[in-house]
Specification:
Two copies of one chain form a homodimer. The first copy, chain A, is an alpha+beta fold and 466 residues long. Helices cover 41% and strands 18% of the residues of chain A. Chains A, B: Residues 33-374 form the Aminoacyl-transfer RNA synthetases class-II family profile domain.
Chain lengths: 466, 466
C-alpha cells in the first residue's frame, strides 16, 4: 500500500475552502469581464526554446521541464541527448505565454487586445511556508500595436478597485508611481546611468527593513559617494504618499517645481496627472488610491506607470495586486512593437495569507449546495426526487439524500456542511400539497405550497443574511 | 528572433472560441453544482510513486514527468540517479488524483462524498488530429464509505440530461447497461471465466466496424469455438436497445426470463430496474435514455451500472459522456473500501469535435462584452468613462474606447467583435441627459434617460434574441 500524499509546495484545499477559493476566482473573473476583457487560456507547457528565450538567473533555474516516459527513455539511451533541453517546459508566469500567444496569433487579434487569463503557473521553489511550486495567477493586460495611449493605464486602478471592493477582504490602497518620473528624478540628481540608478533603487528598497540611517550611511559611503543633501532629497522623495486626489496633484506640482529640467521627469509627471484624472473619472474613491514614489517594481520590465496594492489593516501581507506599463511585450517573437499595461493577482498566495490572517473563514462556511432534500420516508423517495428536480429546474443547487437514515442526522449533516435550507416532504406534506422549509441559518421553519417552493426559496436566497 | 508556436497536441483557442468553450465549462460546472456536488482541484503533478501505483501499459508509457532545472542537472550528474523515476508526474486523468485525495483526506470528508472536478490532464500521445496531449476532463463522482446504495447510480443520467439539455448541442441518448448483467449473461452461456469473457467482449466490441458475419466466423472459429446458437444469442443480446421506459422494463423481463439462473444476471437486472425507476422519478424524459446491452466500458474498472451518451444526429462522434459504478476507488492507498459512481466529459475533445461538425459557431459569435462605450468626442472622455462605470456598477460588461477614432470604425469593431450594444454619449446626449443605445443585433437604436440606462439594458439583455 502506498501512502497517499500531495507533493510539497502545493495548495490543495478541502471542499469548503475550495468553495471560498472558487468564489474569489469567480469574483476576479467577473471583475475582468465587467471591464470588457476577453478570456484566453494557454497550454500548461510551452516549447522550451520558446519559453526560455528571455529569462535567465533565478527564474530559469526554477523552470520545470516535462518529458513523457518515451522521451525520458530516449534521452537516457542516447549519447549526447542529455546535453539538450527537454522539448517542453511548464509556464512560470502568464506573461511569456501571453507574449507568445499575441505574437503567434497577431494577425487574428484586434488591437488594442484586451485579455484576461487565470491559470496556474509553476516554479521549482524550495519548499517553504507560503511559497508555492504551483499557484494561480490572475492576469489582465491590454496590448497595443505600435502604440497604446497612457489612458489605458487608468483602467488598472479602476479594475483593482472594483475587484477588491467585491472580494470584501478589507480596506485597501492602490499605490501608483511612474518609472519615467523615477528615472527623471535620479537624472536630476546626477544619477543618470541606468546601472547606478538600479544600485541606488536596490538600496532604497531596503528603507522599510533597515531604516533611514542605514540608507544615509550607505549612500554617502564608498561605492555610492552621494552628497548628504542628495540623500536627504532621495529620502524625502521616496517617503512621499499622497492623501487624496488634490494632494496627489499637489505632490506632482512639487516634484515638477523641484526638477532640474529632466524631460523624463516631466513626462512621468504628465502621465501620472492624466492617469489620476481618469482614475477619478472612472469613479475610484480617492481614499482607495495614492501616489507612492517608492514603488519601483521589476527594474527591467516596467517603463511607465506602476501599481501596487496593500490592505490597510494588513500591510504585512505586502502587495496583493501589482503591475504596470511596459514598452514591448514580445520583442523576442515578433518585429511588431507591442506596448502594454497590466496587473496580476497571485491568488493562491493571497488566499493562503488571508487564511493565515483569519480573514476568510466566514465565506468558507457556506456551501454551494443551497438546499438539502432529506429522505424522510423511504416510500416517498420518488416524490422527494421529483421535488429535488423541481428545485434544480428552478436554478437552485440541491442535494437529495439517497441513503436514508434518521432525519435528525440528515439535518445535522446539512448544518455542518453549510447547506442553509432543508426541504422536507413527508406524508403530511404530500397530503397537504406543501413542503416544509427549514432555514438552518435563521433557525426558522415554514410551510409553502408545493408549486411555490422555487419562488419562495429564491426570495429567501436573495435576502442577505445579516 | 524565436518563432512563437504552441507545442503540438494542444487546443489553444482564439478569444471568441475561448468564450464559447468557457460557456460550456460554466454550464457543466453549474449542472454539477445544481445536483449538489462540491468542487475540488488537485495539483497538476502528483508524486510519481503515488501516481503510478496502479497503472501499466499504455497509460504509464504516456505519463509526463516534471523535473525542475536543478533536479534535471542533479539527475544528469549522478551515477545511477538516472535509473530512478523523476519525483513528480503530471496527472493523466482525474480518477487517480481523486483516489489519492479521498484517501489522504478521508477523515476530513463527509461520506457519501460528492465532488466534481474540472481540470486539464496530460498524456504523451502521438500527435494526431483530434488527439490531445493536454485536455479538459469534467468529472463528477459520489464516493461511499464501505457501501453506496445503487440509488446513486440514477443520478448520473439525470446530471447528463440536465447538462446536455443546457449545452443545446442537439438531441442525445444516454445509454445504460450493467456489468453484472453482462457477466451473468455470459455465465449463463457457459462463458464464466473472466478472461474468456473479456476476449468475447473485445470481439463483440468490433460489431459496428466489422459486422455480424465477422463475429459469427470469429466466435464459432478456433480459439472461441462457441456454438452457432450461442453466437446468435450474443448477437441478439448486444443489439438490444430499448425504445422507451416501459420497453426498457420489458427488455429486462425478457433477459430474466431467458436466464439459466445466474445470480449476477438477476442482480444486474434488479439494479437496472431500480436505476430506471429513479431516473424516471428524477424527471429525465424517456426519449433521452435507453438500455443498450452492448455498452461495456473499461473491462477492469467498472463493476455495475455503466453509461455512454451519444448525439442522435452525430453518432460518429462516439460517446460524449461516459462513466459507471466501481467497487473500490482507492485500494492502493487505503484499507477503507470506497465504492463510487461517476461520469466524465472530455470537453477539449468534445469541443473540437463539435467545431469540426460546425455545431458551435453560433455561440462563438457573442462576446462576453455586452456594451461598448465609444469615444465620440475627446472632450467628453470623462463623461464616457463615468457612463462606463455606471454600466459596470449595474453588472453590465462594458468596454470603454480609450483611443478614439471615427465612430463608424468603432461601431464596426463592436459588430465584428460580437458586442451587441453600443452606448453613445455625445454633446447632444449630455445636453439632453440621455444615452443613445444601438442594438447591433436587431439593428435598432433608441434613446434612454441617462439614469435609466442600466435598467433599460438589463431588460434588453434578458430578452432572448430569436
Amino acid at each position: 500500500m502506498i501512502s497517499p500524499r500531495t507533493p510539497s509546495g502545493v495548495l490543495e484545499l478541502l471542499p469548503p475552502e475550495q468553495i471560498a477559493f472558487q468564489r474569489m476566482l469567480d469574483s476576479i473573473r467577473s471583475g475582468y469581464e465587467r471591464f470588457g476583457f476577453l478570456p484566453i487560456e494557454t497550454p500548461v507547457f510551452e516549447r522550451s526554446d520558446v519559453l526560455l528565450t528571455k529569462t535567465g538567473g533565478e527564474t530559469e533555474r526554477q523552470v520545470y521541464f516535462a518529458q513523457s516516459t518515451g522521451a525520458l527513455e530516449k534521452a537516457r539511451s542516447q549519447d549526447g541527448a542529455e546535453e539538450t533541453l527537454p522539448e517542453l517546459a511548464l509556464r512560470f508566469d502568464l506573461t511569456v505565454p501571453l507574449a507568445r500567444y499575441v505574437a503567434e496569433h497577431e494577425h487574428q487579434l484586434t488591437f488594442p487586445f484586451r485579455r484576461y487569463q487565470m491559470q496556474r503557473v509553476y516554479r521549482g521553489e524550495r519548499p517553504q511556508r507560503g511559497r508555492f511550486r504551483e499557484f494561480y495567477q490572475c492576469d489582465v493586460d491590454v496590448i497595443g500595436k505600435d502604440e497604446l495611449s497612457v489612458r489605458h493605464d487608468a483602467e488598472a486602478p479602476a479594475i483593482i478597485n472594483a475587484i477588491f471592493a467585491d472580494l470584501a477582504i478589507g480596506d485597501f490602497t492602490i499605490q501608483i508611481n511612474n518609472r519615467r518620473l523615477l528615472r527623471g528624478f535620479y537624472e536630476d540628481l546626477g544619477i543618470g546611468d541606468p546601472q547606478a540608478q538600479a544600485a541606488v533603487l536596490r538600496e532604497v528598497d531596503k528603507l522599510d527593513k533597515r531604516g533611514a540611517d542605514y540608507l544615509r550611511t550607505t549612500l554617502t559611503g564608498e561605492g555610492f559617494g552621494l552628497g548628504v543633501d542628495v540623500v536627504e532629497q532621495i529620502l524625502a522623495f521616496v517617503q512621499t504618499r499622497s492623501t487624496g486626489h488634490d494632494d496627489a496633484l499637489a505632490r506632482l506640482d512639487e516634484v515638477s517645481a523641484g526638477s532640474a529640467g529632466s524631460e523624463e521627469l516631466a513626462r512621468g509627471v504628465a502621465e501620472l496627472r492624466e492617469v489620476l484624472g481618469l482614475v477619478r473619472a472612472l469613479g475610484v474613491p480617492e481614499d482607495n488610491y495614492c501616489l507612492n514614489f517608492s514603488i519601483a517594481r521589476g527594474l527591467d520590465y516596467y517603463t511607465g506607470t506602476v501599481y501596487e496594492t496593500t490592505l490597510d489593516e494588513h500591510p504585512e501581507l505586502g502587495s496583493i495586486c501589482s503591475g504596470g506599463r511596459y514598452d514591448d511585450l514580445a520583442g523576442q517573437y515578433t518585429k511588431s512593437r507591442l506596448p502594454g499595461v497590466g496587473i496580476s493577482i497571485g491568488l493562491s498566495r493571497l488566499f493562503w495569507q488571508l487564511r493565515e490572517a483569519g480573514l476568510i473563514e466566514a465565506s468558507a462556511a457556506e456551501s454551494t449546495v443551497q438546499v438539502l432534500v432529506p429522505q424522510v420516508d423511504a416510500e416517498l423517495l420518488d416524490d422527494q426526487l421529483a421535488l429535488a428536480s423541481q428545485l434544480r429546474h428552478g436554478g437552485i443547487n440541491t442535494e437529495a439524500v439517497l441513503d436514508g437514515g434518521k432525519l435528525g442526522k440528515q439535518l445535522r449533516y446539512a448544518d455542518r456542511a453549510g447547506i442553509r435550507f432543508v426541504a422536507i416532504l413527508g406524508q403530511q406534506e404530500v397530503a397537504d400539497g406543501t413542503v416544509t422549509l427549514k432555514d438552518l441559518r435563521r433557525q426558522d421553519q415554514f410551510s409553502v405550497p408545493r408549486d411555490e417552493v422555487v419562488s419562495a426559496l429564491r426570495v429567501e436566497l436573495a435576502q442577505p443574511l445579516v
